[in-house]
Input
Amino acid sequence: MRRIHTVALLCVLLVPILAAAETLPTLRFSLPPVYEALPVAFAQEWGLFAEYGLKVELLGFSDLDERSAALQAGYLDGLMSEVTHAVLNASTGLDLVITAAASSQPQTGSLSLALVSPASYRLTDLQQLILSNHPIGVLRRSDHEYMLDRLVQTSFPDTRTATKIAAFSDLLQLATMLGAQWLPSAVLPEPYLAYLTTYAPPGRSAVDLVLLSDLGDLPVPPTVVLFQRSFVEAHPEAVRAFHAVYNEAVRRLNAGARAEIVDTGLHVAVSLFFEAANVDLIGQDVLDAIPIPTFGPLGCLDESLYVDIAAWMQQRQYLYGVVPPYDDFFDGRLLP
Output
């Protein structure tokens, strides 16, 4: 009889848990190849989402336009996004909401974002590049293009300097073109900079890059967490759990030893930044050169930055329609 009572008690305790698990949504989420996305990728690898009762399906789209199309078609519930592309997608009329902003700080002496040129082009500074009329490879309608524009305006405030752009929608494709020295210059973030300057393809040497400008000297926009508003309204607890998991992954990454992070998460990072790359071909010298930043906890999106980026996109005629006001687009009530 006692055994029957014990079994019955266990059933009573388990029923609410099982019922809750059945009602938890599966979050279809996409990551861009940026450092701020690594906590999500590591959280998935470490099983943190499962610990918080959330099932996350990470869907890979290295191309910015493909990710936007998937969001527009309803294949994604959320994604991490540049501020510019969040604004761009919202301007189509899609009902979206930014719930958080993510940031990271580079190691001392390392770069976060830079304008570089292969040494073979013999460009030594930004002014020479602009005057040469060589194109600058950059992600189109992106935070990188926004920062490049601000850099040129800051460097040449008294002239109407035109910047010739070679537009890309895929960061890996842009890095590959620069590494092959088919582009005279490009705006690239880490870890692509370290990878290009240390990885030697078979029969070739690593590319020698000249630093033309450290764009990290300018205010760097954060990467934002963007959701379909319908998902947030239907599953606020799932969004809150996602935020909590992100911050827990940040804590573990910042506290972890570099060797442990590389050993346990190499394939995670490679799949995020270098889609379809063979991990076995990446030597230890390349891994040692890749800087690991300090990750920050999720926070709020700065209103003045949002307004400035939206105005820049409007001036560039990049928008499809009206941009929602900051108070309608950002909602930080579900932040930890």
